[in-house]
Design a protein that fits this description.
- Belongs to the short-chain dehydrogenases/reductases (SDR) family.
- This is SDR family NAD(P)-dependent oxidoreductase.
- It holds the Pfam family adh_short.
- InterPro entries: NAD(P)-bd_dom_sf, SDR_fam.
- It is built from nine helices and eight strands.
- By secondary structure, it is of the alpha/beta class.
- The protein has a single domain, classed as Rossmann fold, CATH 3.40.50.720.
- An eight-stranded mixed β-sheet has the order 3-2-1-4-5-6-7-8, with helices on both faces.
- The longest helix has 23 residues.
Amino acid sequence: MSEKWTTADIPDRRGRVAVVTGANTGLGYETARALAGRGASVVLAVRDVAKGEQAAARMSGDVSVQALDLTSLDSVRTAAAALRSRFDRLDLLINNAGVMYTPKRTTRDGFEMQFGTNHLGHFALTGLLLDLMLPVPGSRVVTVSSTGHRIRAAIHFDDLQWERSYSRVGAYGQSKLANLMFTYELQRRLAAHGTTVALAAHPGLSSTELARNTPAGLRLPLTWLAPLITQTPAMGALPTLRAATDPAALGGQYYGPGGRGEVKGHPRLVTSSAQSYDAAVQQRLWTVSEDLTGVTFPVARPERNPLPSVPAVTK
């Protein structure tokens, strides 16, 4: 395997079933396309089915579409039931879909839009599908976070839904920090089973539709700088693909671009912020997330912590 990991390094995925959320455009599209190109049966789990079908038509291989609106727990449950009726096993779940810097809005269940979509929707989907993965050796849950988990980010247990005040940037940071804390806590619970693992990834700065809600004050400077500091969606998808397919990848690891500042470049192991490894906050967030979604997982927390506080990272 080359030092500059690319889609050419993805092993043969024939016989594997993968679900990718938000796969009709951007990072999700490139992730799904690469997996299908290596033989996986790929499900594009998308809010807009028509756009999903258009995306599927542009891919080669076994690709299908499943309606999924992460802003609605009813839709999440319906999608999970549909997937369970179609498949008796699942090898890969990629929690990719997300929103960023949205104006103050709520999901259909009354959750702050970014926290509800990016974290709670994926938390519920994973919990409802996990028993399809536990019997499958080598199965993986990969959740896409962001360098935004470091920016004005904290888990605001006293105001998770930002009802008292609202910051687009802070709410996004909370949701992306939650993605990482969910991954690390999930891996802690999966470790005793020895089959499924949980990993995280981030795309650096990629040129996608996700940035359409960027505050006006930042939009013009970023437009000028974009050609210099961003990379293509295909490059941005590589950390997710490496976490999902690299035989050497381990549960609890986090992948991102290898260039300066993790802005762009070929994927490598990276570390997240110190607070993301706080096991007590991870557990508290997990409990709150179960309460809010009504979804419990078929894996319990072990008495001992099998994960280091901050994993060692090598290229």
